[in-house]
Design brief:
It is a single chain. The chain has a single domain (2-150), classed as START domain (Alpha-D-Glucose-1,6-Bisphosphate, Chain A, domain 4, 2-Layer Sandwich). The termini are far apart. Strands 1, 2, 3, 4, 5, 6, 7 and 8 form an eight-stranded antiparallel beta sheet that branches. It is globular and about 45 Å long. The protein is built from four helices and eight strands, in the order βααβββββαββα. By secondary structure, the protein is an alpha+beta fold.
Length: 152
């Protein structure tokens, strides 16, 4: 797996950026910034440490899919670590097999560092070669969407 890192400075408190990014007060804020990946992006589950969470969306045919993940660490407004360990095929969790092995144990981490009212969000993630260009092209626009709603 390859590691990618993305950073964005946002003119808002770390607490506000964190709440908007995770959709803690209103899930639509999470859905807004992640719509850069899929217009139907959402999540099912909890952001609490140790919790299972599904990152979901619907494909062109209307079929639900996404990632099966665990919140490995959660330090409010400071750090979140997500471990991906499977994917969804409709409502079925797939946690073994060749497709899963490519991603298994991959992490997506969010860090928030506030300085003088400006928060730097850092996303560090593991990805496989076939998605490298996709994330390099899509993550910056997703973080720009997060910036827009957080600075309102």
């Amino acid at each position: 797996m390859k590691k990618l890192q993305f950073k964005k400075e946002i003119n808002a408190s770390a607490q506000k950026v964190y709440e908007m990014m995770l959709g803690l007060k209103d899930k639509s804020t999470y859905e807004h910034w992640t719509s850069a990946f899929n217009p139907t992006s959402s999540y099912e589950g909890s952001w609490e440490k140790g919790s299972k969470i599904h990152f979901v969306g619907v494909d062109e045919t209307g079929k639900k899919g996404g990632m099966v993940s665990e919140i490995e660490d959660h330090q409010p407004a400071t750090f979140i670590s997500i471990r991906h360990y499977g994917f969804l095929d409709g409502d079925t969790e797939i946690t073994t097999g060749e497709q899963v092995e490519k991603w298994a144990g991959g992490h997506e981490n969010y860090s928030y560092h506030e300085n003088n009212g400006i928060t730097t969000v850092t996303v560090e993630m593991d990805t496989i070669d076939e998605y490298l260009d996709y994330f390099k092209n899509t993550y910056p626009s997703a973080l720009e969407k997060l910036k827009e709603i957080s600075e309102r």
